[in-house]
Specification:
By secondary structure, this protein is an alpha/beta fold. 46% of the residues lie in helices and 11% in strands. Helix 6 runs parallel beside helix 7. The chain starts with 30 loop residues before the first strand and ends with a helix. The structure holds D-xylose and nickel (II) ion (2 copies).
Amino acid sequence: MTAFPTVEKVQYEGPDSDNPLAFRWYNPEEIVEGKTMKEHLRFTVCYWHTFRGSGADPFGMGTMQRPWDDGTDSVENACNRARVAFEFFEKLDAPFYAFHDRDVAPEGSSLSHTNEIFDSVAAVLKEEQERSGVKLLWGTANMFTHPRFMHGAATTCNVDVYTYAAAQVKKAMEVTHMLGGENYVFWGGREGYMNLYNTDMKRELDHLGQFFHMAVDYAKEIGFKGQFLIEPKPKEPTKHQYDSDAAACINFLRAYNLMDHFKLNIETNHATLAGHTMMHELDYAGMQGALGSIDANTGDMLLGWDTDQFPTDYYLTTQTMLCLLKYGLAPGGVNFDAKVRRESFEPIDLFHAHIGGMDAFAKGLKVAAAIRADNALGQIVEERYSSWNSELGKKIESGSVGFKELEALMLEKGDAQVQRSGRQELCENIVNRYLDKV
Ligand code: XLS
Ligand code: NI
Ligand code: NI
């Protein structure tokens, strides 16, 4: 049985290929900066959009044709879908996948029943991982779909729901560990608020900090060595998500003494919803030693929500790869947290979407590496800050002078020297030049 009878394993054919089912840029074994593309990019297919996305939106019902899926919540359907997913990962040559507990397995009539179902499906996932060699980048718990989580999970006003959430994450961590997951993700779901009149923000954040400490303790207890990741997002579904952006997450982690245990999973569309660029979020997380992994997608300039489109823009992927090469990515990866449009309802569209995203990132990797090899942007940055290499600059940077000394110096000098040009347009032209060249 095959779910994708018309598709062979996708191969690299080079930039001139017009085969829509071939890679033009992603050449897994090609070496860039001393590592293969496969090692750099660690491409990951997400289970929720690709295998559970129905195409429903607030105005209309599902549109996707998924002939292998009988549309029921049976365990058999879940196991069968898991096998189809692995056929997809293999044909796409994707080395990793990622899931929420409830994407792969349906809920049962009680928590213990749900856990049993999860175990049965996890056994299939394990078997398929072993058969195919595809690995789990990360697991996570869905604590936002079910009505019990209407007020949040680890920040809920209800202690019973908090307890349920703790039990759910415990189980999701165990399954992630059993499947050799390299990371475990916390995206806030409904951790946030709709209105401050009815919200005790301090208490909710204290509870969240406590929750993460429990996760850290439990990981130690079961020997889970994967990296914990928090995924920032500013809004949606709540009007204010607590993990609103990289800076807010890092402040939270510091305040609750969790910096040693967590890094960030930065998502493009979340960055732009927060009013930042992806490059900003990556650079901010990276400079704080907190860049863990990325959810690769893109938003739409004219739509104000998380549209989760596949990334095809070379500027975006070049900027992203400049940061990933600078700060490193493993054990994180490039996870396509992206969905095909509801008008792209055929199974083959899943291939087009992922191939496009993988090629865009592979090209971005090559362009970024070429820019770095010539230090083309680095040189401009170095020149721009060169005044700081003076005696005075060194004194300030090492903290050995204060306002009084600086005032004395400037009183003597009378005025500050002329600045260097920022050369922004030149930088933009340089990026274009390398995009043309690669
Ligand atoms: C939602 C998030 C979600 C996380 C995983 O906006 O991106 O998909 O990545 O819970
Ligand atoms: Ni995401
Ligand atoms: Ni998202």
